[in-house]
Amino acid sequence: MAGFGILKRVAEENRKFFMKNCIQFDSPRLQSETYPDGVKVESDIPYIEGENVVTPSYDEGLCSSLRLLDIYTPENAKADELFLLIHGGAFVYGCKELDKCFGMHLAKKSGITVANINYRLLPTTDLKGVLSDVFAAITFMSKKGFSKIHTIGDSAGGYLCLIAAILMNSKQMRDECGLSDFDADVTCPSTSPICGDHLESPRQFAGIFFDPEKEMPSYIYDLGDAVEKFGCPPVVLTTGDQDMMLKQNDHLYKRLKKMGIPVEYYCAETTEEERPMHHVYAIAHPEWPEGVKTIDMTIENAKR
Fold it and tell me: Looking at residues 167-182, what average pLDDT do you find?
């Protein structure tokens, strides 16, 4: 137990270091973004009754656990179809604003409404709490008439979009993960992790924060195991040649292919020094040709 205490202290140090680095990168990016026109934006909608909607300070807002969502509605949007967009940040950092520009581009080009969500961050809750937030958002949107819910997310949001897709389509998995109360009449036709995470360790950051009470099944640490047990809708995996999760994405692609899961894979290559295919490049730069291709592949995946 003493050794585990040391591991937790190291994980906490890593969490703080990670958040500081992310803020330094994301703050200037968000301040320089230009959003596309032709998309109706509804911001900061509570999907949990009574959620506090007080606007935090800027840097606090980049690490928001407020359970709010934005809705991006394109012209002539399909009535029952939705993209659920889940931001990344190693489960400990981030907010929906990080993915706003990408989500608006996706809505405009696809003709499908996008719901871009916040969720409580670790370690203020555990993975079960995060998933309960994701499914509260799904329930909220289902009450607005959306029954076909495609999932998309980046980095840790890629993990969450993949596990949410499996959970939506499997009551058995929901029961095993403590989400038995979810009863919305929805299906997940596709999932599209961008530079996604799917492997975590219960002894290292950020997986050490997943399940402190050890109540959840072991496949939460390897979603390939979850897919093998419960199946999965068609998948698009996108990564880049400078993505820190390139090997992880390549491994998942090969495993899904071996299982017979319909999967498309795109590893963007850096061809210009000023346009590196780094982690979550498509989220940061949806206007780049590689970001456009990621969006196009996501839309095609939703049409299968």
Answer: 98
Angle at 194 between CA 225 and CA 282, to 5 degrees: 175
Is cis: bond before 123, omega within 30 of 0? Answer: yes
Instruction: Measure the CA–CA gap between 123 and 108, rounded to whole angstroms.
Output: 35
Mapped to the 3 state alphabet, what secondary structure does the chain carry?
CHHHHHHHHHHHHHHHHHHHHHHHHHHHHHHCCCCCCCEEEEEEEECCCCCCCCCCCHHHHCECCCCEEEEEEECCCCCCEEEEEECCCCCCCECHHHHHHHHHHHHHHHCCEEEEECCCCCCCCCHHHHHHHHHHHHHHHHCCCCCEEEEEEECHHHHHHHHHHHHHHCHHHHHHCCCCCCCCCCECCCEEEECCCCECCCCCCCHHHCCCCCCCCHHHHEHHHHHHHHCCCCEEEEEECECCCHHHHHHHHHHHHHHCCCEEEEEECCCCCCCCCECCHHHHCCCCHHHHHHHHHHHHHHCC
User: Is the whole model's pTM more than 0.90, yes or no?
Assistant: yes
CATH numbers and ranges of domains, the chain: 2-302 (3.40.50.1820)
Closest CA to 290 of 274, 266, 273: 266
> What is the C-alpha separation between 174 and 182, in angstroms, rounded?
8
Work out the angle between the directed axes of helices 100-110 and 289-302 (0-180°, nearest 10).
60
For 252-278, what is each residue's pLDDT tens digit?
999 999 999 999 999 999 999 999 999
pLDDT tens for each residue of 185-212 = 999 999 999 999 999 999 999 999 999 9
